[in-house]
Amino acid sequence: MNQDWNAQWRQQALPRLATQPWDLIVIGGGISGAGILREAARRGWRCLLLEQRDFAWGTSSRSSKMVHGGLRYIAKGQWRLTRDSVRERQRLLQEAPGLVEPMGFLMPHYRGQFPGPRVFGGLLSLYDALAGRRNHRFHDAGQLPFLVPGVKTPGLLGGTCFLDALTDDARLVLRVLAEARADGALALNGVRVTGLLREEGRVCGVEIDDSEGGAPRQLRCSVLAVATGAWAERLRPADAGRQLRPLRGSHLLLPGWRLPVAHALSFMHAEDRRPVFVFPWEGATVVGTTDLDHHEDLDLSASISQQELHYLLAACAQQFPEARIVAGDVLSTWAGVRPVVAAGGADSQGKPSNETREHVLWQEPGCVTLAGGKLTTFRPQAIEVLAACGAMIGRSVSDDGAPVFAPVPAVDIPGLSGAQLRRLAGRHGRDLPRLAQLVEQLGHECVGASDTLWAELAFAAEAEMVLHLDDLLLRRTRLGLLLAEGGASYLPAIRNLCQERLGWSDAHWQAEEQRYLALWQRHHSLPRTDA
Ligand SMILES: Cc1cc2nc3c(=O)[nH]c(=O)nc-3n(C[C@H](O)[C@H](O)[C@H](O)COP(=O)(O)OP(=O)(O)OC[C@H]3O[C@@H](n4cnc5c(N)ncnc54)[C@H](O)[C@@H]3O)c2cc1C
To answer: Which neighbouring-strand residues pair with 17?
Structure first.
């Protein structure tokens, strides 16, 4: 049943779901849900994940893509979060090379401005102590412009370099799901949970709606894990005083040549003294992020506002004045909503950046909800949720430290560089041999100036549960962000390669293309001037 993970498989799997006795149903196909499913499947639980839109459709494809300890958490005394994050970063670097890669971060220091080299070095020593290795170095003002060409130099004292990591967040979710599926779990997208079933005061299942037109159904389970991120309060009210405060963070993506950086530069925005970043990702340059209350409808994808665009352009002007980056340089944008547990309830008036990023569990008989959390710490969060679920059904769960990812099969793909092979192995894991066959068939050309092979698109269309064109272009691959105008000029070639593999008619493809381009304009281009 787990062989061809595509729309046909989904059609056959859906009617059978109600006939199976599930130990665990997980709601939400972001990194939290994927992590819980992975840990449950590894322990032999019969488990199922349901995602209302697409895997990683929520915040887990719209993060800043850092697998990091979070220096600012240490500065705020959030020790547990920093310690877990640093440990998980080390683990992911080791387990998933090519998907989670080390990245040098640089904090420049300016005369009379916080943080100075001493304070920052002290903070990093604590950070290093948590990671168990020294990992930072000071570069003087003479060296720094070589490390970050174009960086503002008046008043520059130097900069401190430290190591963290970057990932492709949506591919991380896909890979974790692939591991869970390999251990027997099922994961379906396009399935919305519309309500919880209760019997004698205990949650015992869910009511579902198939967004692709199937009949509503009821599914039963021994225990339910709700991992719906910013939507956590939709299915179950928050515990008193622990409501979610949805906070939006937006990013700009610039062509790599327009603002070339080899390291991630972290600096304080002059407007509000918040840390912001400029970093290289997939051959392009990311500028992020913002942190403000998100009052829009959560059922719509979040979008960057004019105010955020100006804030991020001002960050570029502040730190790279000669580059003269303007809105017209922007390739694409994305915005995500942080599922942050508010210190003072949902109507908390504190500064968004002061809210803790620690997660909490809300529990009722038969149901555990994860609220808050981070991409980096998905594994310990998942184990905590599973332990709480296990306690409700008499199963003991502890962190045995087992790897999330199975070793990637050794495959040589002639014609690809070592770096390309590493990237493919990281992103596709146990599916690498099948991808290698497609590379052999289709060649090793990349799409435009991106690092994505045409063969990756073909593989996704065949076996990565693509229901809509945006699944393919925004999450299985990131071409919709990396190519100009969402890759519009490549759509005919993408259609040639993928339409048949997806089993779509001409009319179906055309409808998907229109839908995708409209969605891209609304949520990934520059904001409307009245936004
Ligand atoms: C701007 C920004 C930058 C960030 N940067 C970082 C970073 O660099 N590093 C880091 O570690 N963390 C970062 N984070 C935090 C991290 O991205 C999130 O904590 C994480 O992605 C949340 O994952 P999740 O699975 O809990 O939620 P989501 O990814 O939002 O997944 C929840 C899923 O549940 C689904 N769902 C909701 N309701 C239903 C329903 N009724 N039925 C079925 N499915 C449903 C949604 O469609 C969604 O896909 C960032 C967050 C933001 C917003």
So the answer is: none
Quick one: which H or E segment has residue 361? strand 360-364
Pairing, β 136-140 against β 156-167: antiparallel
For the chain, give the mean pLDDT.
93
Q: How far is the CA of 115 from the centre of ligand 1 (A)?
A: 30
Instruction: Map tokens 């990756």 to a residue.
Output: 456
- What are the helix (H) ranges across 132-228? 144-147, 169-182
Does the pLDDT at position 531 exceed 70?
A: no
User: Which atom of ligand 1 lies closest to the CA of 235?
Assistant: 41
CA of 127 to the centre of ligand 1 (A): 25
Rounded Cα–Cα distance for residues 357 and 373 (Å): 6
- Omega cis (within 30) before 149: no
Distance CA 353, CA 313 (A): 20
Q: Do residues 492 and 502 touch, judged by C-beta distance below 8 A?
A: no
Write out pLDDT tens, residues 342-357. Answer: 776 544 557 776 666 6
Q: Nearest-5° angle of CA 9, CA 15, CA 20? A: 100
Q: What's the gap in Å between 249 CA and the centre of ligand 1?
A: 12
Q: Which domains does the chain have, with CATH numbers?
A: 7-60+170-242+352-392 (3.50.50.60), 245-338 (3.30.9.10), 418-524 (1.10.8.870)
pLDDT tens-digit map of 373-430 = 899 999 999 999 999 999 999 999 999 999 999 999 999 999 999 999 999 999 999 9
**Distance from the CA of 366 to the center of ligand 1, in angstroms?**
23
Using CB atoms within 10 Å of the CB of residue 452, give its burial: 0 to 12 exposed, 13 to 18 middle, 19+ buried.
Answer: buried
What ligand 1 atom has the least distance to the C-alpha of 372?
A: 19
- Ranking 72-86, 98-112, 142-156, 157-171 by mean pLDDT, the lowest is 72-86
Written as one letter, the residue type at 450 is S
- Centre of ligand 1 from the C-alpha of residue 368, in Å: 17
Model ipTM over 0.85: yes
Among 88, 340, 353, 375, the mutation site with the greatest number of ligand 1 atoms within 8 A of its Cβ is: 375
Atom of ligand 1 nearest to the CA of 335: 1
Q: Which tens digit of pLDDT belongs to each residue from 247-268?
A: 999 999 999 999 999 999 999 9
Per-residue confidence (pLDDT) for residue 213, from 0 to 100 = 87
Kindly report, residue by residue over 7-20, the tens digit of the pLDDT: 999 999 999 999 99
Joined together, the tokens standing for residue 70 give 């979070």
